[in-house]
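Bench notes, afternoon.
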Amino acid sequence: MNAQNQVAALLRGQLADIVAGSFFQFIALIAFSIAAIRRRGGVRIFIWLGLWSGTFGASLLLESPAVASALPASLASGRVLLRVAASYLTLVAAALAFLELTLGKMRRLLLVWLAADAAVAVAGIGWFLISGAQYTFLIYNQLLAAAGLLLLVVTLSVPALSRRFMVLSRHPVLTAGTLIFVGEALYANIARPLHYDVPNIVNSLGFAVLLLSFGYVAVEMIVISERRLLAIDKELQIARELQFSILPAGVPEIPNLRIAASYLPMTEVAGDFYEFVALDRGRVGFLVADVSGHGVPAALIASMIKVAMHAVEGCAHDPSEVLRRLGSSLSLELRGRFVSAAYLYVDSQTRTGRYSAAGHPPLLHWCAADRSLIRIARNGVIFGVQAYSIPAHGDYPACDITLASGDRLFLYTDGFTEPENAAGEPFGDRRLEQVIRDNQSRTAPELSECLLAELRAWRPAAVMQEDDITLIVIDVA
């Protein structure tokens, strides 16, 4: 037989293992690609699936003399080490993959199994490096594999256990794939002692069925997760529409006042809230509130403030009483959250105002006459600190304000001053005040847009907004 025929015979004997190994490497590539494309929650299961398939495929390819002869000289010396590592690490990858499917005590039990698998892998690879013995610890690896497979079969076969300990309560494809793999493994282990020849391709086919059934379940989990996220997104969109419906539809038309309001929620729903209380054509109250936290819980409390404001309209001319009654109404509903609030009452006919706050950033008053910017901080106790007592009237002291033509007032939440630049410096009160000083010729809406533009420029483009932002600008005409 010439050399060409010898090579052909060699390849025919190893072709099945080469094809199987390449197939499992291809499955690994697909799994890693899905994880890279998705880039969101739920990708770990595909990463472990890729590692599981890749290590098993690598062990098949590295056992082939034909593949070994084709390797570059720089890799040929490490082929045995790679083969030993793949043989031990396949079970570790499998344990990580199955861990993503379990809950509760089953998950904790699998963590113990994973730790044992990892310990055997480290011992086996380390012993090979020391002594050159390739499979000294492989028997322990196989025992752990059998124990894990038995645990999986029992859990999948008993509906009560599946409902309690598996992420998916119904998994007929995974159950069928696991039983087929177990059947193939039992057949191989019984046939070999009886001197029946079991081709390696049978083992590869059994493992392929198990792996593909696992991949099917992984895709099913992703689909269910996407549907759940779509449902949540839809509900959040509805919540956003409802929240915007409780905010003022526009600014009130008050003689001698020009008003601009900006509201930028961090997420679909927010914890910031503002309200206008127009008493008549010349008198108006402004409320700005900031609920601690974000999302739906904060938005629910913001909606409570809307309801509570209706009960205090009778005292809208008295900021101290407004905040006292709001604190009383909200005290038993906050459940561990805090609310800062500021209330400003303005009488445009007498050019006067009154202001009080509860743990809120100060009111800014630009005085056109002497071009000075005054910080007015009349803060009482933030809502939520005294959850089971009604604050006394004096806890929210008010400040009288005299207004003149060209003056400006600024109410805002701390989301406006806290954003940081690339150097970690907050936008801060000084920066806010400087932008106000530099843009006095602008109208209230123009100045509001200018302030927001400065804030966006301050924050790095790659950094998401980290808090809700509310700003009200009031010009005295």
